[in-house]
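Aim 2, interim progress: modelling of the protoporphyrin IX containing FE-bound target.
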Amino acid sequence: MTVKLTRKEVEEHNNNKSCWFIIGNKVYDVTKFLDEHPGGCEVLLEQAGHDATETFEDVGHSSDARQMKEDYLVGDLVEEDHQKYSYDRKATSNASKTEKTDTQPLQDKLILGGLIAAIVALIYYLFTA
Ligand code: HEM
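Predicted structure of the complex, ligand included:
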């Protein structure tokens, strides 16, 4: 079973003896990773006890880095402390993009139908002229 934590509990782990932060409503303990982080320990300590989602995303971490962070997972935030992130909004706007492409086949059919009608009209015109 996953451990459920509150933002308040995470806030207490805000130093180099115990450094936790939140990424995407999940809690990570990076105390042991501080000296290994390729971006340096300072940036991690700045986020200690806070929500590091936006900064983590802004850096554009590699998929290896994303995978790596799961080694430091300690638990999930309780439902009440969940937050909507701007990358969720991005995800929704991507979803509406998908909706747009969903209507694409209909547009394609209309264009194709128009073309066929034009060709039929041309043949009819040639034969009756
Ligand atoms: C558990 C969480 C994290 C893991 C596992 C992680 C891992 C990594 C890794 C593997 C890299 C090397 C480049 C790459 O592969 O993308 C990196 C670079 C970096 N990370 Fe993190 N990181 C974490 C959290 C953060 C946070 C919260 C920040 C906040 C600012 C941050 C800032 C940076 C910066 C500034 C670089 C250097 C980018 C560069 O020099 O190109 N990281 N991180």
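The first helix runs from residue 7 to 11. The radius of gyration is 26 Å.
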